[in-house]
Model the fold of this input.
Amino acid sequence: FLTHSWQSIQIIAAVVSFVLAAMSWLFGKGYYQPVVDKKTYHVELPTFAFLNHRNVILGAFYCLLAFALVSAFTSLWGIQFLVHTQHITLPEATHINSAILIGIAVGSLIWGWLAKHTGIYRGLLLLATTGALVLLTLLLLAPPIPYVWLYVGYFIAGAFCAAYIPCLALIKHSVHTASQATAMAFANMMIMLGAPLFQMTIGYLIAH
Done:
């Protein structure tokens, strides 16, 4: 069953997602009950009040561009790019492509820990952006290199791009608590916008 086609993997993922959703429905809370300080007062703010904060706008665009490695490259063009430029097999390209996602998973923990213990959000975001720019430029323009170094390079590139995680935290702490949910939703919307925007752009450039 597992070896028939990629549809089998999709079915398994759908079943697991359904089970997790059912468990959340049965055992999780279906509401949010914040802890209210009796000494404070409830504040009503306009829905889009968060747009007045520069950190929210700039942070959302940072997340959009940082996550573009996944939304534009990894999810669509990455495997074929590796096959044609590095002259490797399809399974090898798949493994290397997945290294980006593993790097993001590990990098998220690292950047989150660094942001919490240093508080230097701007410096960390600049470091991650510079590292991702240099490394991705080398990986995209480099001639065929050994499989192991490709895997390591793409893993580190994913870790650099994971800096969008502390950027989300920065967005959250930049606005009033009454606007935090809307600001985070806006940032996530910008992240997802990268898929249709950059995938179509890359496709157009390749076609022309």
Summary: The chain is about 75% helix and 0% strand.
